[in-house]
Amino acid sequence: MGDPGLLRISEPVRAFDSPELRELLTDMRDTMAAHDGAGLAAPQIGVPLRVVIFGTGAPNPRYPDAEAVPETVLINPELKPIGEIREQDWEGCLSVPGMRGIVPRYAELHYRGVDELGRPIDRHVSGFHARVVQHEVDHLDGILYPMRITDFSRFGFIEELFPGQDIVDE
Length: 170
Known about the structure:
The protein has 170 residues and is of the alpha+beta class. The chain has one domain (4-161): Peptide deformylase (Peptide Deformylase, Alpha-Beta Complex). It has 3 helices and 8 strands. The strands form 2 sheets. A 5-stranded antiparallel β-sheet has the order 1-2-3-6-7, sandwiched between helices. A 3-stranded antiparallel β-sheet has the order 4-5-8. β4 (86-93) and β5 (96-106) form a beta hairpin. The longest helix has 16 residues, at 19-34. The radius of gyration is 15 Å and the shape is globular.
């Protein structure tokens, strides 16, 4: 947090199944796995492209109560909320280490984009899956989750918010 690259709007990907894109995705997967992340956006590793990856096996050490989300590469995503219902839940971020906050997100979402080969992805999702997609796509628009927080009394360092609990973070 504070890196100007995280505040930029990312550029669309125009070339698919290229060596550069494969290398980027390898770097992103390695980074996400090393930190038990639920998702990662290309800007988080210094690449201003509209690429996100996400997915969790169940359970994920950072989000042990969350349902599994399919491993996905989503490029040039477009999001459309379904309805106006928003849910509040805890979020953390590899770019804001050691902190968590309650963030409102749309409960249901339709998203589309393409995978690394340029094949279309078109899904209607809810719950944790919808939350993860919204969080990661925000990175492509220069938005970090603290910018979405509406009640800062529920934002802080993990050890202060959850004393004595073994909350996994970097």
